[in-house]
Amino acid sequence: MAIGFVLVKIGPRCEMKSLEFLRHAEHIEDVYMCFGEYDIILKVRTDTIDDIADVVVKKVRSVKGVLDTKTLVSTRSLTGE
Question: Residue 61 belongs to a domain with what CATH number?
């Protein structure tokens, strides 16, 4: 099991439409709105790290309004989840 966190920068006035699409995309487990350099944080769970890359490239970056992404791959959970 591979878990990644994807920081997503969204263009002005595209947040809600992008958020709605991402909420229902396969392998995206959680979606968080945030303030700062990035607008949305996604928790992605897949079988492999390569599959995380596929989700980011084929799904997240294809969403209208997505300007930039940064992907962080988790090595393990410190809370036991």
Answer: 3.30.70.920
> pTM for this one?
0.91
Q: Does residue 30 lie within any of the structural domains?
A: yes
Q: What is the pLDDT along the chain (81 residues), one digit of tens a residue?
A: 899 999 999 999 888 889 889 999 999 999 999 999 999 999 999 999 999 999 999 999 999 999 999 999 998 888 876
**9 domain residue, yes or no:** yes
Gap between the Cα atoms of 50 and 33, Å rounded: 25
Asked, for residue 78, whether it belongs to a domain, the answer is no
